[in-house]
Specification:
alpha+beta, 303 residues, Pseudouridine synthase, single chain, 3 domains, 9-stranded mixed beta sheet, elongated, 7 helices
Length: 303
């Protein structure tokens, strides 16, 4: 381990300890080099004595639940799921049970520990009401590798969305920065005073009766990015109660079709990334859920 950073040495020396957990131990002064606490980026000299107090791994406070999510791809490093609409990814304020994490724990699979006991394996999220591709890490090594790809925008994320109205341009780039709404703090907005760069690209696939079916490439990963950008464009996602309402006049056939499909019409169709172990490019497609597929057929829409 000559020439390695101290946090990496500690993580590699303790089974099941992630690098982020090692950094937390170092920040707390619980690891010493020759009797002296050091920073995470310290490079110990060859032969130096490294000692510390490593706590037992924290057990999850969550109760496992039956696993019911469709698996699209799985190996010993990761799995890609087709998350249904209405399923929250991990516990948070107001949601302490009935999440995807509870189901993952119930499946008995090994999961990465990087996210802590309440977010095992969770590398990224989808909104509760968005369906489609979601990748989960089974090892800490895979978690760090996938996180790096998300951070550096090397993961391709393609979505499908049913929106109100038909964009004037069949293709477009939406680049307005996104941040917290200046008044309604639970919402995101393109009018934020501290917006972060965001890029969404869309293309028109088909349209009928005042709605349009769009293909969307998500180039950045801001909270509610697609929903906020499309609402700002004047074409909010159908079923989005936060960022858009239906126009005053809706065609009777659209109203009738939507009555049987009460959900956000947004689906994460495709993920493409480098496999964290082999380095090979992996592409995974999530089929449309039956209720959304039936709706599109009824409206005469599709790719």
């Amino acid at each position: 381990m000559r020439g390695q950073r101290l946090d990496r040495i500690v993580a590699l020396s303790v089974e099941g300890l992630s690098r982020s957990a090692a950094r937390r131990l170092l920040d707390a002064g619980r690891v010493r080099v020759e009797g002296r606490a050091r920073e995470a980026d310290f490079h110990p000299p060859t032969g130096a004595l490294i000692e510390g107090d490593v706590p037992e791994p924290a057990s999850s406070p969550l109760s496992p639940e039956p696993f019911e999510v469709e698996v699209l791809l799985e190996d010993e490093h990761l799995l890609v799921l087709n998350k249904p609409a209405g399923l929250t990814v991990h516990p948070g304020a107001g949601r302490r049970q009935g999440t995807l994490v509870h189901q993952l724990l119930g499946s008995g699979r090994a999961l990465s520990s990087v996210g802590g006991p309440e977010r095992p394996g969770i590398v990224h999220r989808l909104d509760r009401d968005t369906s489609g591709c979601l990748v989960v890490a089974r090892t800490d090594v895979a978690h760090h590798a996938l996180s790096a790809q998300f951070r550096t925008r090397r993961i391709d994320k393609e979505y499908r969305a049913l929106v109100w109205g038909v964009p004037r341009r069949p293709r477009g780039r939406l680049e307005s920065p996104i941040g917290r709404h200046p008044i309604h703090r639970r919402l995101m907005s393109t009018r934020s005073r501290a917006g972060r760069p965001a890029l969404t690209e869309y293309r028109l696939l088909s349209s009928a009766s005042g709605v349009a079916w769009l293909g969307i490439d998500l180039r950045t990963g801001r909270t509610h990015q697609i929903r906020v950008h499309l609402a700002a464009l004047g074409h909010p996602v159908v079923g989005d109660v936060l960022y858009g309402q239906p126009p005053p006049r809706v065609a009777a056939e659209v109203r009738a079709a939507l009555a049987s499909c009460q959900r956000l019409m947004l689906h994460a169709r495709r993920l493409a990334f480098e496999h964290p172990a082999s380095g090979e490019r992996v592409e995974v497609l999530a089929p449309l859920p039956p209720e959304l597929d039936d709706l599109l057929r009824t409206l005469g829409l599709g790719d």
